[in-house]
Amino acid sequence: MGKELSQDIIINHLNLYLKSQNLPLSMNEDGICNGLASVYIKYVLEKKEAEFWGNINHLLQFVNKKIDDAAGSQINLFATEILLSFVPEHYNQQLSQSTSIQMLKIDGKSLSSSFDFGLATTDLKWANIIKTIDLNDQEVMQVSSVNHTVAIYKKEGKYKVYDPNYSSGTKEFDNEHDLIRELQQRVFRYKYGHLGMELHVIRHPTAEPREFPNATDLYNKYLDKENINKSAITDDGKEFNTFKVVAAIGNDEQVQALIDKGATDAYKAASSAIQKNNVKSLKPLLQQIEHENNTKNISILLLLAITTGRLEAFNELLANEKFKESFDKLGSPLSLNLIALAAQGGNATLLQQIIEHVELQLKQSPVLMEGITNTPEYLALNEEEKEEFQQKSCSMILSKAICGKQSSLQDAIKEAIKAGSSECVNLLLSKTVSKQLDVQDKLNYLLDAIRYNQCGIVLDLIDKAPKIAKEFLQTISMNTRAVERTNINILQDLKERGMVFSQAAEVIIALKEQRAISAIEYLGLALTKFTDFCKEVLWNQDSQYLSYDPKKIKQIKDDLGNIKKTIPLNEEEIEVKPIEELNLQGISFNLDEEGEDEEITKPKF
User: Fold this and answer.
1) Assuming Cys at both sites, which of 18, 79, 374, 482 could form a disulfide with 23, CB separation 3.0 to 4.6 Å?
2) Is the pLDDT of residue 188 over 80?
3) Which long-range contacts (C-beta less than 8 Å, at least 24 apart) are formed by 551-555?
4) In angstroms, rounded to a whole number, what is the distance separating the alpha carbons of residues 360 and 317?
5) What pLDDT does residue 61 have?
């Protein structure tokens, strides 16, 4: 094909393209092979393999320049499809990389796997399994190991492999034995012992149904008590475990077949199933764990489902009586911290479920109710007022827990911002008592949202009650590095709502908007960026690329008289800490008017 086509080269050009389009995204090697292989499968099934390589070539020819609308639209679609398959759980929390193909469509119909299988066994047995599957011309196999994914289809009796690491793009093999040798030694690098692979057969949505081998029969044929717990180990020491993989992609019948053959460590297998949100395999695993009666493992699995936002897996756990009992016994302060843990998962439905659970626990807590009902304020009320007082007291405790304003508790709103979930942020804000959340709190959250390039959350924090007035937005400052790293949509929204940018920042915004700027403006920008660089690297100063000015906040407080939280005024009272030492508020104050701004670290997808 004439060009270097390995995933490293493609990643670099994809990132260049994403940057040129002002998209706050970047790709790394972790998982990109899955995205590329999935999109390749779609194009092959559409009989458009040449178009796939055409899009790759467009990217390779692109060097940070503006392209015409038609080509740009095609590359946008191509890059979007790769992103959807690269991090599917970011867009649909029911999916994982094993099921990421469902994010792609042909003629409006989602792709899906018709046959799923995973095993660690010898190369000879794998060759027989591939032959038994017998791929036809309307099918492509997605084949994965512990850290890599390729696509394979059959053309004119030969196996054609697309490996994102191939500099040539694809290779062809005459038979199953040659194919397996390539996969074992060069693609997945299992040079000694067993080969561990997970495969999914993807068919064109309109293909005629056909019968596949029974996966349970294959496990019974190729596994026995001697090899059931043997793992395949790659050259760099990574382990492929059959039980964990089958738990992640299989069903109850297949998992039970492995348990009957003596598969051990149901806890690790269940962890794998939860992370992949595969509820089809959980029931026999939970029964095995319940039989072992390890309460610690039960609690850990519950917390794993919560922190990963796996709603379906979590509800499957609660359907087990032992797990439900363990969950109900989770006491304070862990029960209150469940809110922040659920916020990490970014699933608003699961978060709402956890909040309702915590609210119920608060109302049913004898210690808490005794503390509330013994206060003079409570005793002076009538019965109707007493009920309202109890409700308000519980709401206040919940609000403090959400904002992390109670000792040993995480700030759930900050966790939701990191997770990039507008729904979770809005849900948490709606549960927060107004006097527990002042303007400075909202500004701190806003800085986090800008730092993580969360466009929707930025707007929600500014526009939804309690709103952030433009006077407070004008206390925020961003230096050139911060502006460069921030999505153009966020910058435009901040400007529209009253935030004032420096002259150098305005030049960067103009460049991001692809507007013409003068030579003088270029020169001024270069000088400002060089100064910022010197402060950060050469002069080794504590850098703050994004901050707000507490003096201005104080002035607005005095003018408007509506800020209830007092901030220190004397410079000696304020400690400027490096980023790794910042408290849960996520910001340190710098009263030097020429100080730098806090760096925004962009999430890597």
Assistant:
1) 18
2) yes
3) 551/591, 552/474, 552/475, 553/439, 553/440, 553/443, 553/472, 553/475
4) 20
5) 72
pLDDT at 331: 63
User: What's the distance, Cα to Cα, between the start and end of the chain in Å?
Assistant: 29
Residues 6+ apart with CB under 8 A from 36: 7, 10, 82, 164
Distance from C-alpha of 472 to C-alpha of 470, rounded to nearest angstrom? 5
Cross-strand pairs, 202: 113, 140
Q: At what angle do helices 412-419 and 383-402 cross, to 10 degrees?
A: 50
Q: What does each C-alpha distance from 118 to 99, 122, 130, 141 come to in angstroms? A: 14, 13, 12, 13
Burial 364-375 (b: 16+ CB within 10 A, else e): ebeebeeebeee
- The closest alpha carbon to 409, from 350, 454, 343, 352, belongs to 343
What torsion do the CA atoms of 484, 490, 492, 493 make, to the nearest 10 degrees?
-160
Judged against a pLDDT cut of 50, whether residue 466 lies above it is answered with yes
**Distance in angstroms (rounded) separating the CA atoms of residues 547 and 584:** 15
Distance of alpha carbon 417 from alpha carbon 562, whole angstroms:
26
Percent helix, strand, coil in the chain (nearest 5)?
55, 10, 35
Residue 161 belongs to what H/E stretch?
A: strand 158-162
Torsion-angle region of 346 (φ positive above 0: left; ψ -120 to 50: alpha; else: beta): left
Relative to beta strand 113-121, strand 195-203 is antiparallel
Rg (alpha carbons) of the chain, rounded to whole number: 28
Query: Residue 240: which of 377, 147, 133, 102 has the closest Cα?
Result: 147
Which DSSP letter does residue 569 get?
Answer: -
pLDDT at 516 exceeding the cut of 60: no
Does residue 555 have a pLDDT over 90? no
Question: Band of the pLDDT at 423, cuts 50, 70, 90?
Answer: very high
Lowest-confidence range among 67-71, 205-209, 245-249?
A: 67-71
Residue showing tokens 């460049």: 511
Q: What is the pTM assigned to this prediction?
A: 0.80
Helix count and strand count (H, E) for the chain? 29, 12
- Omega prior to 24 cis, within 30 of 0: no
Spatial CB neighbours of 39, under 8 Å, sequence gap ≥ 6: 52, 78, 81, 82, 85, 104
Amino acid at 420: G
68, pLDDT greater than 60 = no
The neighbour count for residue 61, using CB atoms within 10 Å, is 12
CA distances from 583 to 317, 586, 597 (A): 35, 6, 17
Predicted local distance difference test score (pLDDT) of residue 529: 45
pLDDT band at 568 (very low <50, low <70, confident <90, very high): very low
Q: pLDDT for 428-450, tens place per residue?
A: 999 987 667 888 889 999 999 99
d(CA 543, CA 532) in angstroms, rounded, equals 9
> Residue 334 has what pLDDT?
64
Written as one letter, the residue type at 282 is L
Q: What is the pLDDT of residue 575?
A: 31
